[in-house]
Amino acid sequence: MKPTKYILQQSVFIAGLLFLLACRHESPATQEKSAHTNATEKAAKAGQFSFYKDIEVKPGMHFEIISWGKGVDSVGGYQILMSDSTKNNFRSLAVEREGVITDVWNMDLDNDGNPELYIELLSKQNVKDLQVYEYQNNSFNKINFPPLSARAKKNYAGGDKFFIKNGDLFRTYPYIADSSDTTAVKGALKTLVYQLRGNSFSVDEIKVD
After folding, report:
1. Residue 145 class from Cβ within 10 Å (0-12 exposed, 13-18 middle, 19+ buried)?
2. The pTM is what?
3. Beta bridge partners of 125
4. Which one of 32, 91, 146, 158 has the largest count of C-beta atoms within 10 Å of its C-beta?
5. Positive or negative CA dihedral for 15, 17, 21, 24?
6. With contact defined as beta carbons under 8 Å apart, do 82 and 65 qualify?
7. Mean pLDDT throughout 12-35?
8. Domain residue spans in the chain?
9. What does the alpha-carbon distance between residue 92 and residue 85 come to, in Å, rounded to a whole number?
């Protein structure tokens, strides 16, 4: 079965599950959320989903990220499920992926009050990348995460680590010096810091340590 067709079938299945939960008027919204979470957790334990994480943004508002795929682990899809039990509001987004999801976290890097979901993907064994979605006005808006510059790629061979420090987003990776660089320190790390303004990322390079 082609990956796109498989992803579509899985998306319809999960969206249908979410719809059925939203339509159970005889149960409180909190019970709907609990039932949905239990169902996805059981499916994840059974091996149907390769990744599952529940992120609570504020009381009653959750984002659940579910990843699936068969055959090649790095090819598949994932779905973001938003449930707001205080407003009885449910939304979802299905996305194709290339890479294995290793982590997901919420930030508000631009301080505009809207949640931003950062999906960390691992590909080629040691190369990491991010996919970013901001949730605003009941919609998921993709924010393009900038690739490494041509200059940075000259000294790059994977081994990335993303981390948050003092509310800022950082990326480090081993600095691979070329033969002409006689000043490079063995085992040095390159550090990049990212800023977000107006749904657009900027990146600054910090000197090699």
Report:
1. middle
2. 0.76
3. none
4. 32
5. positive
6. no
7. 45
8. 149-209
9. 15
* Alpha-helix runs per DSSP H in the chain: 3-22, 29-45, 150-153
Tokens of 132: 């970013």
Taking 50 as the threshold, does the pLDDT of residue 20 lie above it? Answer: no
Average pLDDT, integer, range 180-203: 85
**Residue 91, SS3?**
strand
Higher pLDDT, 41 or 63: 63
Q: Which two tokens stand for residue 197?
A: 């303004």
Strand-pairing partners, residue 123, are 127
Is residue 189 within 8 Å of residue 209, measured between CB atoms?
yes
Asked whether residue 65 carries a pLDDT value surpassing 90, the answer given is: yes
Residue whose pair of structure tokens reads 């997901």 in the numeric block: 104
Kindly report, residue by residue over 147-163, the tens digit of the pLDDT.
Answer: 999 988 988 999 999 99
Non-local CB neighbours of 203 within 8 Å, separated by 6+ positions: 146, 149, 192, 193, 194, 195
Find out whether 144 and 151 touch, Cβ atoms under 8 Å: no
